[in-house]
Design goal:
By secondary structure, the protein is α/β, with parallel strands linked by helices. The chain is 62% helix and 9% strand.
């Protein structure tokens, strides 16, 4: 993280947003309207078929059995069996389609978040822990799986079942129906309170999961393991992780038990309702009112029992939706992040890039509250020439180089490539034109060949070998047991620093950019390795516009021009010899550089 950059924190939640959030969630399903319509039809058909069974049962008890009509009894029994078969078939089809739609929505969400993060400026990633980002994609979206894949369908299915069942109950006996539904408003109120409670706990739980994921990502990486063991902090890291996990245990238990007793009370009351119905029917009979037939009573209780399952499920779905709103809110936070660096509406595409770079009165700051990191930088690098940027730590050297490939955008002034503001270029032109080799070389956990082809997926074996020969790394790779199929390991830890740098150089050679940025590419290497890498860099730089950020001044003596940055401004400029004659900041830096001390006298 740059010293001036504040850590990223998610925006505060707006208590008035749930309706808007719900509309936004429903929009996720819009591309799958056709399939959802089919699900709705299946749900409706299943509900209608399922409520037919109690009516068939009533006819069996009130007509077929008392009258001894065997043929009718057989038909009614077969009808009950057929309704069970049809309900099951409709249920399987409904589950298949709804699960497919849900998984497609999950895929859309994951892809949308990943795409959004790919568009975010470098500043976002320097302010955000990697584990936090991973947790949003894995834990938050993963936590929504049940909701997205089944809750929506369950909501429609249970609602349809409840409506159809209530209508059927009214058709049988309206008085018993009123008794059955007296407590429904209380149940709805209880479920809403439980939902709000679980939503609050879920937000806390997901934050804790993100914190734990960040701890794992940082401490169990190769670098984290090396640091922990060499500093003797392995036990401390284990204790820290255990404490994080303990907090998660507490939140998981609270999440699971939130409102559990209240929801159990609903289940107990509903389970006791048949006894209430029998009691109410008995009172009706004793009061002299119209008697309820045995068949009607049994059919009504059967319908009521059938009502319990979707009603309880419907209330639970409401609770689940409240819980899921917390997860959706965290995902929408990322999807709503402002993308600072965007491609213009009508981007300029350069088919042939010469490579002239110009910084015109460039000013830059990481945060409006902090002072400028760069101020009034004016420098032109002709196509095919080299510029070296030197200066003390924190003077803005790396920041200046980041402005060319638009890892950051200038705050004031402009940076041009062949006379065109880089902000007006299309991303593809910029990516083809500018290659970067930094001090921290990143290699994927893949083979050598796959890492090299990341720069040019269609590169032939001959092109790869030519690039590695130019980078002076081919002989080493060829000497490995698996050659170019050798896995480089996590972040390339199976290779030394110099070998990784030469692999990065070979990768850039395959890309073949006309503009090359070398960001302290040899500063962390020993003198012997530096010499080998420098030879590879010299081969790579031939005929390209080169911008070198230098820590070791031994790498900049032959640059066509050198600028010295101090507090973000150009303090000196000229060739190596001209700057030595000025005996200013550059000469002072040379005197501190033990490698060039003899040459400077």
């Amino acid at each position: 993280m740059k010293p001036d950059e504040p850590a990223w924190t998610p925006p505060a939640a707006d208590a008035g947003q749930p309706p808007a959030e719900l509309r936004r969630i429903f929009r996720l399903f819009r591309p799958y309207r056709g399939r959802l319509t089919v699900v709705g039809l299946l749900v409706g058909a299943s509900s209608l078929v399922s409520v037919a069974s109690p009516f068939l049962l009533r006819e069996i008890l009130d007509t077929a059995i008392p009258q001894g009509r065997t043929g009718l009894l057989t038909l009614l029994a077969l009808g009950m069996i057929l309704t069970a078969v049809m309900t099951s078939v409709f249920g399987v089809l409904q589950t298949l389609i709804s699960t497919t739609v849900g998984q497609r929505v999950m895929h859309d969400l994951r892809t949308a978040v990943y795409t959004q993060l790919q568009r975010m400026p470098l500043a976002f990633f320097t302010r955000t822990r990697t584990g936090e980002v991973q947790s949003r994609i894995a834990n938050d979206i993963g936590g929504m799986q049940a909701t997205v894949t089944s809750t929506a369908t369950s909501l429609v299915s249970n609602l349809t079942s409840v409506v159809a069942t209530v209508v059927a109950m009214l058709a049988l006996d309206w008085r018993l129906t009123v008794v059955s539904l007296l407590l429904l408003p209380v149940f709805v109120w209880i479920s809403r309170r439980v939902g709000r409670e679980r939503k609050k706990i879920t937000t806390q739980r997901q934050k804790q999961m993100a914190a734990m994921a960040a701890t794992v990502t940082e401490s169990l990486s190769v670098s984290g393991i090396l640091l922990g063991r060499t500093m003797g902090r392995s036990d401390s890291l284990t204790r820290s992780f255990s404490e994080e996990s303990e907090r998660l245990v507490d939140l998981e238990v609270r999440s699971s038990m939130a409102g559990r007793w209240r929801m159990s009370t609903i289940g107990i009351v509903m389970a006791a309702m048949p006894a209430v119905i029998y009691w109410a029917a008995g009172l009706t009979l004793q009061s002299g009112a119209t008697a309820v037939s045995i068949g009607t009573l049994v059919a009504f209780v059967s319908l009521q029992q059938g009502l319990f399952r979707p009603a309880v499920s419907l209330l639970s779905t409401g609770v689940q939706m409240q819980t899921s709103l917390a997860l959706f809110a965290r995902i929408f936070e990322y999807l709503d992040l402002e993308v600072d660096i965007t491609e213009p509406a009508k981007p300029v595409r350069l088919e042939k890039v010469r490579g002239e770079i110009a910084f015109e009165d460039v000013t830059f700051h990481y945060d409006e509250k902090s002072g400028p990191t760069l101020s009034g930088v004016e420098v032109t690098v002709p196509a095919g020439s080299s510029l070296a940027v030197v200066g003390p730590t924190g003077s803005g050297k790396s920041t200046l180089s980041y402005l060319v490939p638009r890892l950051y955008d200038v705050t004031g002034g402009r940076v041009t490539l062949d006379g065109v503001d880089v902000r007006d270029l299309d991303f593809d032109t910029l990516a083809r034109a500018v290659g970067v080799v930094s001090q921290e070389t990143y290699l994927f956990h893949a083979s050598v060949a796959e890492n090299l082809r990341f720069a040019k997926p269609d590169a032939t074996d001959e092109e790869i070998e030519a690039a590695t020969r130019t980078a002076q790394i081919h002989d080493h790779i060829a000497g490995l047991p698996d050659g170019y199929d050798t896995l480089v390991g996590e972040r390339g830890y199976r290779f030394s620093g110099g070998e990784k740098q030469r692999l990065a150089i070979a990768r850039t050679i395959l890309r073949d950019p006309p503009v090359l940025i070398l960001d302290e590419a040899t500063s962390a290497l020993d003198t012997r390795t530096e010499h080998a890498v420098q030879q590879a860099i010299d081969a790579l730089s031939k005929g390209r516009t080169t911008l070198t950020i230098a820590h070791r001044l031994s790498t900049v003596r032959d640059a066509d021009q050198i600028i010295v940055l101090d507090d973000g401004a150009v303090a000196e400029r000229g060739t190596h010899e001209e700057l030595l004659e000025q005996d200013g900041r550059y000469a002072a830096l040379i005197r501190r550089d033990s490698h060039l001390a003899p040459a400077a006298t």
